[in-house]
Amino acid sequence: MTVTVTAEAKSRVRVGEWLELRASRTTTGPWRKLRFADVPKDVPWIAYIPPDREPGMAASLRWYAEPMDGVEFDNPAMRSVPAAERRVRFARPGTYRLWATSYAPLDARSNTLQVDVTAHE
Q1: Which residue range(s) make up the domain with 87?
Q2: How far apart are CA 89 and CA 98, in angstroms?
Q3: How many domains in the chain?
Q4: For residue range 40-51, what is the model confidence (pLDDT) as tens digits?
Q5: Which of 9, 19, 38, 88 places its Cα 20 to 30 Å from the Cα of 78?
Q6: Distance of CA 68 to CAs 34, 88, 93, 98, Å?
Q7: Residue 7 contacts by C-beta under 8 Å, 6 or more apart in sequence?
Q8: How far is CA 28 from CA 3, 21, 53, 113, in A?
């Protein structure tokens, strides 16, 4: 099985402005249905077969930034917006790299985004 996470966002934002993050997850390859008792130790398992393509995954991924200093990711559980949305903002101008990872057992790292953050004018 192969899991692919694709992250998307605008490539430019101003300091302090929220940048919307978008992501999708694609799962391909064979699945084997087993009784839980028959799953070998240390082998990832999942109780359901996910859809081939899952759009709107940004809120269910773990997000990273480099450099991390001055970067704030929002908490989608703390606001009343669709669960698929996730946002980030930056305290300082510069060039940042962003990526996301999917949780086990569908482990995958997304592509890396480059975001140029400009000062307020």
Answers
A1: 2-118
A2: 11
A3: 1
A4: 888 777 777 888
A5: 9
A6: 41, 11, 12, 9
A7: 21, 22, 23, 58, 61, 98, 99, 100, 110, 111, 113
A8: 7, 24, 9, 23
Closest by alpha carbon to 86, among 2, 18, 35, 33?
Answer: 18
* Under 8 Å between Cβ of 5 and 110: yes
Tokens standing for 24?
């999708």
User: Which residue in the block uniquely carries the two structure tokens 């946002």?
Assistant: 87
Indicate which CATH number applies to the domain containing 66.
2.60.40.1080
pLDDT tens per residue, range 29-78: 888 788 888 888 887 777 778 889 999 989 989 999 999 999 999 987 66
Q: Phi-psi category of 70—alpha, beta or left, where left has phi over 0 and alpha has psi -120 to 50?
A: left
Tokens read off for 58: 């940004």
Distance CA 72, CA 89 (A): 5
